[in-house]
Design a protein that fits this description.
The protein is of the alpha+beta class. The protein contains four helices and eight strands. The chain has a single domain, classed as Roll (Pnp Oxidase, Chain A). The radius of gyration is 15 Å and the shape is globular.
Length: 141
């Protein structure tokens, strides 16, 4: 994976998850955990949320991660838009991911402790990396 892409994913923990169902798009600001191989984002929601219902109806998503959180004055904003695919987790995978979320993002404890919380994966498939308004690079993962 490109160094700039790896850095952007590793330095951030917030993204915009874009889902769709019946022609209606929906964007959600989400916290993520990055898999060790940097091809999967883990996220948490509730089973009754619009985003999760959309994922069940249409597993294709778009995810945006950018450098706004860590941008210095006058520097280009670097962003990446991924095309990805929703993947439910096996029951044996859920608790280790929840434990990692709790350790790295204690602000999510309220949702992690809810009986209707759900942890899921987004398998990243392709990307469009922008460094400022015109420098672009795209590829498959």
């Amino acid at each position: 994976m490109l160094a700039k892409l790896e850095s952007l994913l590793g330095d951030n923990s917030l993204c915009v998850l874009c889902t769709e169902t019946d022609g209606n798009p929906h964007c959600s600001l989400m916290t993520y955990l990055l898999s060790d191989d940097q091809t999967t984002l883990y996220q948490v929601s509730t089973r009754e949320s619009r985003k999760f219902k959309n994922l069940l109806a249409n597993p294709r998503v778009s995810v945006l991660v950018d450098s706004r959180q860590h941008q210095s004055q006058g520097a280009n904003i670097v962003s990446v838009t991924f095309s990805g695919l929703f993947k439910p987790l096996a029951e044996s995978e859920v608790q280790p991911v929840k434990t990692t979320f709790a350790g790295k993002h204690p602000e999510l404890m309220e949702i992690l402790n809810r009986p209707d919380s759900v942890v899921f994966a987004i398998q990243l498939q392709s990307y469009l990396l922008l460094d400022g308004p015109v420098a672009a690079e795209q590829g498959e993962l």
